[in-house]
Specification:
By secondary structure, the chain is α+β, with helices and mostly antiparallel strands. The protein has eight helices and eleven strands.
């Protein structure tokens, strides 16, 4: 019985050691050409270098390569000695070359299990199937089986890439044109306030140029057209960002100016107007603070209404300021309340004296 127990323990230990090899490693992810969004029927290439440490894969294991390039697929895998390799590695370091035309290519561990570390240079080419239009795809995926030990990765996937859908192109054109028209209207409003929108206009013109190029290419060359449309969208995003900054800058200048007016109004005794203006200006500041946080964390907040409110506050403040300066009492300034108190006090005293004297005169007549 003890012998059987020892045998089972030995087998368990062996099993533990068999699966302790590390997974494949890589320094850089896959190089995809073209990068970014793709078009149906477009030719795509990918390449990646991975290293397999000694004993990292067993004869019963495997390396599975998969791709979304299911038309004209071609895998070519170069297996080199050692752990450092590039595309200029000498032929004497090349162990073997493997190839497949399947979109899912499994390389047996029997082929890759060497008594030394090896490096694999994986090259892939193929076409984007028409069936994938409108979807997001993974061009290159690598899975090692069995899975790696805890804490190690046994899989790699290239970043997902969108495949354009020609059927959506006309709608995307219309949407981009609407965004441009809307932004032009907002720019006109900012300009009427005297806001510097030069950076916004530069990006807006770039978006209009790219949109025109996209329209010209059309669905006949959907790859070029879609990329031009993407460029227009990128320029519009930059324009929105620039408009947010221009608005925030103008709002800050307006609220600072209103603060100075409020101080001046208090100094001239226009307390009621100063308080009302202060409440309005504080509300604008609160909204500004929220928008500024959004902008500083990568957002492009729409500050149109806040800018409008700040412009109105400045206009109201300026009107109060002009009225206070034109008032005959303006020269009296903050002394006005004291003067009023003194005048009232004098009138009260004088009135009291007159009243007392009249009362005394009455008593004499009665006496």
């Amino acid at each position: 019985m003890k012998k059987i127990t020892y045998i089972l323990l030995a087998l368990l230990v062996c099993a533990m050691f068999i699966g302790t090899g590390s997974a494949f490693t890589y320094t850089n992810g896959a190089t995809i050409d073209p990068s970014g969004s793709l078009s149906p029927g477009e030719a795509v290439t990918a390449s990646m270098t991975i290293s397999l440490p000694k004993d990292s894969i067993s004869t019963s294991g495997s390396l599975k390569l998969t791709t979304a390039l299911r038309d004209s697929t071609l895998w070519t895998v170069y297996v080199y000695k050692g752990t450092v390799v590039n595309n200029k590695t000498s032929e004497d370091a090349l162990i073997t070359t493997l190839s497949s035309s399947s979109f899912a290519y499994t390389i047996s561990g029997f082929v890759l299990d060497y008594d030394q570390p090896v490096t694999l240079y994986i090259a892939l080419s193929g076409l984007i199937p028409e069936s994938l239009k409108g979807q997001s795809i993974t061009v290159l995926k690598i899975d090692q089986e069995p899975t790696a030990p805890p804490g190690e990765s046994a899989t790699y996937s290239s970043p997902t890439q969108k495949v354009y859908n020609p059927d959506d192109f006309s709608g995307m054109l219309a949407e981009t044109q609407e965004q441009i028209t809307s932004l032009e209207s907002r720019v006109a409003t900012y300009t009427s306030y005297g806001v510097d929108v030069s950076s916004v206009v530069t990006n807006l013109e770039s978006a209009k140029t790219s949109l025109a190029a996209a329209k010209s290419a059309g669905t006949a060359d959907i790859s070029v057209a879609s990329k031009k449309l993407e460029a227009a969208t990128t320029s519009l995003t930059a324009a929105e960002k620039a408009l947010s900054l221009a608005g925030l800058t103008a709002i800050k200048a307006n609220t600072d100016a209103v603060d100075l007016i409020i101080t001046e109004l208090y100094g001239k005794g226009w307390d009621t107007e100063a308080k009302l203006l202060g409440i309005t200006n504080q509300g604008v500041k609160n909204t500004y603070d929220v928008a500024a946080i959004s902008y500083n964390t990568g957002g492009s907040p729409n500050v149109d209404e806040t800018l409008k409110a700040s412009e109105q506050a400045l206009a109201d403040g300026t009107a109060y300021q002009e009225s206070a300066s034109a008032s005959p009492l303006a020269a009296v300034g903050s002394v006005l309340p004291i003067v009023i108190v003194i005048v009232v006090s004098v009138l009260v005293v004088v009135g009291a004296i007159i009243f007392i004297r009249r009362r005394r005169g009455g008593w004499d007549e009665l006496g």
